[in-house]
Amino acid sequence: MNQVFLNSSYFKALIDDFDDFHKEAKDIFSLLNEQKTQLVTTNYIIDETLTLLRVKRNLQSAIKLRDMINAGSPTITIYRVMPRLTSISNAQASSSSNPRRTLYRKRRSDKNCRVDKIHLITMNIYLIVSGKTSGLSEQQLKKLQSFGEVITISHKGKLGEIHKLTQDPSDKILALDPTSFDWELDLEALQNIPKVKAVITQSTSYDWIKPKELKKKGVVACNCPGFSADSVAEYAICMAIEAARRLPIHVKNDGKIDWNVKPMLLKGKTIGILGLGRIGNRMAEIAQGIGMNVIY
Asked: Greater confidence, 70 or 266?
């Protein structure tokens, strides 16, 4: 019986309606089916293709491939490639005139080498925000949707008050807006929320989600390091300028100028920075730009 090996690029063209070779891939698939050709591939190829479809197209495309293979029409034999099968020694390889054929026979002779069913792991991604929308761009949302269903919930209060989370039995990721929870996560609520795999905060600071406690529960804690370094540094320098120009006093006096209160120039003054991380480094750059001496 003739066999045809299906690679990831072919699967992509077959499933993706927008692929340049979609029509050709469908015609070939129909022809192979009519000729009752045995179609074979490997678990690595399927894994690569599912990832490719999820990233380049969308989750629905990956589900379409999974359902087509699991339906068995036509039957596609998937051989399981395992490390112990692929680690052929040089001596074994040199003993055959065709090492690849030897490896292929090893795969086929293994009783457990076939994959019966494809399981596509997806997660519900909850964006819990304090406003009406997540604030993500269409491109960012599309990228998230390649990994699972994205659900946006507008909420102010405790995590345990979001009943939709407790009623959802699926694997899930919680992406939290710190202002929704007043920078204090009620971690005990996770006991009633099934299958939480990760808790993500959109802030740089992540002490408020209690990462050490999450680790004990087997939940990954993530933050967004460095995304607000510029804004925080500029805000700090702005407050320094306001204090030097005595702006708080003017505000307190309802805008009336007290000529006895002398403003101060920051140029030539010394700024001390405790910790030269992303924010501290950016503050040092700005301070030097206005002529300040920087010590840290």
From this structure: 266
**In this predicted model, what pLDDT tens digit does every residue of 220-253 receive, in sequence order?**
999 988 878 899 999 999 999 999 998 888 888 8
Strands 293-295 and 76-79, sheet pairing: unpaired
Q: Domains for the chain: give ranges and CATH numbers.
A: 3-115 (3.40.50.1010), 124-222 (3.40.50.720), 229-295 (3.40.50.720)
**pLDDT tens string 97-147:** 443 333 333 334 444 455 566 666 668 999 999 988 888 888 888 888 877
Upstream peptide bond of 99 is cis (omega within 30 degrees of 0): no
Task: For residue 176, list its beta bridge partners.
Answer: 128, 201
Structure tokens at 47: 């894994």
Q: How confident is the model at residue 43 (pLDDT cuts 50, 70, 90)?
A: confident
Closest CA to 155 of 138, 123, 133: 133
The phi, psi pair for 107, rounded to 5°, reads -65, -45
| Contact of 175 with 129, CB cutoff 8 Å | no
For residues 42 and 81, the answer to whether their CB atoms sit within 8 Å is: yes
